[in-house]
Amino acid sequence: MSVPEVIAIDGPAASGKSTIGKKLADELGFLFFDTGVMYRAVTWAALSAGADLNDEAEITRLAETVIIDILPPSRADGRNCDIILDGTDITWDIRRAEVDRNVSLVSAYPGVRLALTTQQRRIGLRGKVVMVGRDIGTAVMPEASLKIYLTASTEERARRRYLEQRQRGGQASFSEVLADIHERDQIDSTRAIAPLRPASDAVILDTDGMDVDQAFIKACALVCKTKN
Ligand code: CDP
């Protein structure tokens, strides 16, 4: 079977992009590349350095200079990979609530996007990759032969994220998680550069009422139908 060389999966917060993308990549023997971790890593770098997140020039400089490494998982604690920032393992730090609250501010800065998108495109162009984010089909890899826009209602996505955070010991209430998702979607879809939206040739997959297996089967069917 011929399969698409580059599969782009975009969509709003907690729509299941990482879960479905990782399963798809494993099934195809492709690299799974979650571009959101790079924006999260820059946000964590800024927070832990005590930087002013509203200082666009300082945050941009940080995005241009930090070394973010994405390596195979070094331990079996639920991680898909190790995220290393300047030599330190920050795999779980980037999932903290303060990163959730600030990542959309950081990722709206054009200089930050330019720095990270350049890296992402270099990796994507190697092919055999499932890339997940907000702007993969529209800006990072517009030549992707399959573009999936994964979505679900805000309440359903908040429920998924709430359960995920609880499992990791998070204390945020459901209404806090819902408010955060709502705010992040709002910032992501209204920013000036590469806002969150489906590419004109994306297939929209609404996963409301679907479990992971059902969504995965739908995504596999799209892969089978796509030619390079
Ligand atoms: O996992 P979740 O859907 O909550 O978010 P994520 O994919 O880890 O992305 C975190 C944030 O990074 C998003 O809310 C966007 O602000 C930003 N992002 C982006 O701007 N472009 C991407 N390609 C990926 C993420």
Question: Which short descriptors sum up this protein?
Answer:
binds cytidine-5'-diphosphate; alpha/beta; Rossmann fold; 2 domains; 228 residues; three-stranded antiparallel beta sheet; single chain
Brief summary:
This protein is α/β, with parallel strands linked by helices. It is 49% helix and 15% strand.
What does this protein look like?
- This protein is of the alpha/beta class.
- It has 2 domains: 1-30 and 128-228, 3-Layer(aba) Sandwich (Rossmann fold); 38-126, P-loop containing nucleotide triphosphate hydrolases (Rossmann fold), CATH 3.40.50.
- The protein contains 9 helices and 8 strands.
- It has a 5-stranded parallel sheet.
- A hairpin with a 2-residue loop joins strand 4 and strand 5.
- The protein is globular, with a radius of gyration of 17 Å.
- The site of cytidine-5'-diphosphate has 15 residues, from helix 2, helix 4 and helix 8.
The assigned CATH architecture of the largest domain is 3-Layer(aba) Sandwich
Rg, alpha carbons: 17 Å
CATH topology name of the largest domain: Rossmann fold
Distance between the termini: 11 Å
Note the main sheet.
5 strands, parallel
CATH level 4 superfamily of the largest domain:
P-loop containing nucleotide triphosphate hydrolases
Which CATH C-level class of the largest domain is it?
A: Alpha Beta
Shape by Cα distribution = globular
Record field, number of beta strands:
8
Question: How many domains, in number, for the residues?
Answer: 2
| Average pLDDT, all residues | 94
The succession of helices and strands, N to C, reads: EHEHHEEEHHEHEHHEH
